[in-house]
Amino acid sequence: DTSLAEVNSFSPSMPISPLSMINQYKFEDEPELRDLFITVDDPESHVTAIETFITYRVATKTSRGEFDSSEYEVRRRYQDFLWLKSKLEEAHPTLIIPPLPEKFIMKGMVERFSDEFIETRRKALHKFLNRIADHPTLTFNEDFKIFLTAQAWELSSHKKQGPGLLSRMGQTVRAVTSSVRGGVKNRPEMFTEMNHYMETFSQKINVLDKIAHRIYKEEREYFNEMKEYGPIYTLWSASEEDIADSLKGVASCIDKCCKAAEKWMAGLSENLLPILHEYVLYSEILMGVLKRRDQIQGELDSKVGALASKKTEKDMFSEEIGKLEDKVECANNALKADWDRWKQNMQCDMRSAFTIVAENNLHYYEECLATWESFLASQTVDLHVEEDSEDRP
Amino acid sequence: MEDCLAKKMEITVSEAEKRTGRNAMNMQETYTAYLIETRAVEPQSEGQCAPVDSLWRRYSEFELLRTYLSVTYPHIVVPPLPEKRADFVWHKLSADNMDPDFVERRRIGLENFLLRVASHPVLCQDKIFYSFLTQEGGWREVVNETGFQIKADSRLKALNATFRVKNPDKRFTELKHYSDELQSVISHLLRVRARVADRLYGVYKVHGNYGRVFSEWSAIEKEMGDGLQSAGHHMDVYAASIDDILEEEEHYADQLKEYLFYAEALRAVCRKHELMQYDLEMAAQDLTSKKQQCEELATGTVRTFSLKGMTSKLFGQETPEQREAKVKVLEEQIQEGEEQLKSKNLEGRDFVKSAWADIERFKEQKNHDLKEALISYAVMQISMCKKGIQVWTNAKECFSKM
Asked: What is the pTM of this model?
């Protein structure tokens, strides 16, 4: 495959049913009211003269009227997801846009385009789209709809239509300068509290992320050593007679515990690590959202400040001020609502992730316990048999 | 077994103490002394307890005792001493001989050594062993007076024998292979076990970090706060539990180590057999060559090439009187040689018989001890799993209430 192939959007086989999708993925809001189901899968490598990149299949099933069809299948690359995210941020500066997986993790143990990296990214992209779908406002965003439904060429041409690079740069400049000036002085108490909360939360979630990764690393090293440990007992049993069975029994127990340890590790990496990482990214996003709110406030404050010194042009500015006041009120309300929603989801996600990990750890110990108990039972049976046979004349 | 010392006397190594003194070169040194307490196990009248005797010994004296026993009873698999320096360390344990944990484990090992000797049917009757337990001063002199050092075989001689012996008893050859394999597999086992322990320690201890972060996080949360806080507490409990778990496992490692060192004792018995067998073969060879020489001189035929034969051909032969004298000398030597060979043969057979009896005793002891060690290892694992289940059940409850 040497070009960005156009994939037929009507694939005859859509193996995943909506019901199984509900079961597979946890949703934030009422699952029964869902009318948009998205999956991200089937990573494919594309090699051109200039670059190598991966595309993912984005499959959508919906019953919404605004969609022309009830099923869509498109291929998207990471760049496309980045575009979508920036469009959503542009349209809703004070809403909490879900995080995207990072471009490339330098410090990880994973190579670019290794299977592990691609799979981790795929899962995160899947999460990203589903979080948007679950968001009461973002789910109806037009760019989101285009992202899900447009063919590759349609998407490219739509991307070019948006505000140009220069205007986007202008926005950034304005954003930087206005953040320097204000929005903090007249900031409502609520948002100052949010800022304090996010500072601490951000710190803690980063530390938790590090701890969880460290635990995973130690578990993996433990698993590696255990792989070598069991076979030594088997080797030993080869030079023994009387105790050969006991030695083999211990070897078998250790091997079983080793396999259980593998599941132990996997549980951590599948359940806790992705969530903690997502919330590390979320904490950055939230800090950004709070800043943007401050900027919007700052625009209003600076205009009000300018007006205070020009009493004559009051009328001319009042309409502008009014608009800005509305803008600030909208932004604040949007953020407040989204914040509450975010906090609830965070609590739910954390509760579920940590509970699953605890359960996982329980299973590990229960499995190991069963293994050793059965070995012990076999040994004490032998002892009794020996004793009985000694008693006989 | 009925008469062994262990039944008549309670022996413990109850204390260890750091001492400073001057060594042979009058330099100051620090060493550890161990208190040996003994008490007669005899039926006493009500309320009366036999008096406890005690004396202090240091590790080098234990070494001297063991060397004496190995030399004096070469056909016995002499119990080994606990290791001189800490080996197979994993990161927590110190390799320092003065480390209190190491000293404690050595104390237990020394007590075990004394009990093993005291319950051995042959060794327990040794007088030097008895005075080691009971004679406070001058024990070293008493040992040296036995002159046991003279009986000790040179290491070089033993090595030489290993390579040159032609007809060793097959059972000893097999035993030597077995002890080599045992030593190799147990050392490998101990090394990997230490690494496994290290990693497990890491897993548990990192969980300890959760406690503080959860606590700090709970400060900014309203509904999640309690769940986080209590979960954090359980994480601390989990992290702390590994210390006891791994300490218990050290006992298991020590049990294996004893048999690692026993392998060396087995090899020593095999070496002694090889040495005796080699001696025997050399004596037999010597006898054969003397007989041949005798025959040649008597009949005047030279069957084998010898320098003497050549020189006599070149420089003239001996007189019949000279020849007769030589024959007489040889005949005397041959007679001596035959007697020696007979007694060496007898010695060899006795050695094989008594060594093999002790080896059978040792095998049974080893099988019993190792099986028990494996069972106790399983018990330890079970206990660890149960603790883990409890902690994570509690933690799960806390998390689900977040």
From this structure: 0.83
